[in-house]
Structure formats: C-alpha cells, structure tokens
Amino acid sequence: MSARGPMSDGAMIADGITKEFGTARRQVLRDVSLRVFPGRCTTVLGPAGSGKSVLLRCLAGLERPTRGSVRIAGTELTRLGEAARTEFRRERVGVVYPRQNLLPALDVSDNLLLPLDTAGRRPDPELMERALDSLQVRELLARCTPSLTRAEELRVAVARAVLHQADLLLVDEPTAALDVVTGRHHLRLLRRCSEEFDLPVVLFSADPAAAAYADRVVALRDGRVVEERERSEGRGRRTGRAEHIA
To answer: pTM score, two decimals?
Structure first.
C-alpha cells in the first residue's frame, strides 16, 4: 500500500527537455526525456558538465525548460507560474543535496517535521513509525543537527521527504563526501526507500556505483541522453543520438 495520498498517475514524466542559457542560446540540455514510476529508482549518470544539475533543477521546478514538459503525479509543472511552481515544489517534491539539507538551529525531530508544520499538517503515525525504523533515524531524533555525520544528515533529509509524502524524490550526488562503504549503504537505503514507500526516486551522480542500485540508468553526456539501461538488461541500449556523438 502506498504511504502517500492519492495521485493522478504517480509518475514523473519529462518529455523533450531542452534548456538554453544566455543571448547565445547555449544548450545545456538537449531533448532529454525521462520517466520514473512509483517504487522505481532511476540513476542519471554523467560527469561534471553533463547537465545533471540543470536537469535536476528542471525536474524540481527550480528552472523552467526552454522547451519540453515535466509532469509530476498528473500536474504539468512547466505550465505553472513561478509562485505556483514554488508551492508545488514545497508540497510535492523532495530534493536532497550533498550538503546543507537541515536547519542547524533545529534538532533532528524538528527538522523532520518542519515541512509538515509549515503546511499546517500532522504526520501520519503509521508512516512515521515505518520511516523512523526503515531509514534508521529513530536514534537520532534528540540529536542537535550540527552533531550529525554526513551520512546521518542524509538519512534525516530522506526521511523528511517520506514523512512529507512527497510525490518525487530527487537526490543530488548521493555518495559525495562519503567513504566507499558508507556510500554503498546510502545507495541501498535509497533503493529500499523507493520500494518500501512506493516513491519515484531519481539519483543524479557521477559515481558509477550508483548505477548498480537503480532499476534504470540514464547516461547523460553534453546535455544529451546517450544510453539507457534497465536493471534486468545486460549492456543496455544506446539511443540513436548516442551513435552520433559517442
């Protein structure tokens, strides 16, 4: 059973995303399409400069694509005005960055409940119990936020998105600043999060290890999708565009 409220279709669908900057219309993203469904984890894999961060910002509603569309749980995000996009992002999208996800002035418990408090909502008790145990944050509740390790802070940030019943979770560089063992543990936790809480999760990473924990891998290079691979597939499928730029 889904932990989240009813949605139109539960999916995140990006279609033909192109993003240009400046008067020279420099293309950072070129016709990128992506579909992520509840209970599925997708890794967008690419080196620095591949366009991962800009794609994340487009999917989160922080940037409006020059062309293309983003639909999250039935809502056409790219048709909303700036204020409406901000409200939608606050209510429906969880974003976890490598650093500075939590407010240092609040303890862990208050950080977890902050989005719900802001929205005037109370946490679902059953969901709270499941999230605290599954994401291993119960023992952290009374801790001061500055005392957390990097890995602990990430777990709290993910749990906060789950408790807020986000329709989409976007995670930027999930293994950044973590040692190999801790990084793999965090990737396993994110994979489990997508399955247990029926949540579409997208990881944006330059670390090839992130591919091993995803149901689908989308390789990005120079703003284009150059390869797509399902977990059950072997070598994956290169797009027609990849044949021209590889």
So the answer is: 0.88
Query: What does 159-178 look like in DSSP terms, one character per residue?
Result: HHHHHTT-SEEEEESTTTT-
Instruction: Read off the amino acid at residue 208.
Output: P
| Inter-residue contact 135 to 155 (CB < 8 Å) | yes
How far CA 6 is from CA of 52, 56, 73, 127, 139, in Å, comes to: 30, 24, 9, 15, 31
Cα 136 to Cα 55, 66, 143, 159, 186: the distances in Å are 30, 40, 13, 9, 11
Specify the CATH number of the domain 12-225: 3.40.50.300
Task: Return the domain boundaries, the chain.
Answer: 12-225
Contacts for 148-157 with beta carbons within 8 Å, 24 or more apart?
Answer: 148/102, 148/108, 150/99, 150/177, 150/178, 151/178, 151/182, 151/185, 151/186, 153/101, 153/102, 154/96, 154/101, 154/186, 155/186, 155/189, 156/101, 156/102, 156/108, 156/111, 156/112, 157/96, 157/101, 157/102
Q: Is the dihedral of CA 7, 12, 15, 21 positive or negative?
A: positive
Task: Give the mean pLDDT of the chain.
Answer: 88
State both tokens at 39.
């209970």
User: What is the pLDDT confidence band of residue 9, given thresholds at 50, 70 and 90?
Assistant: low
pLDDT in tens, 41-80: 999 999 999 999 999 999 999 999 999 999 999 999 989 9
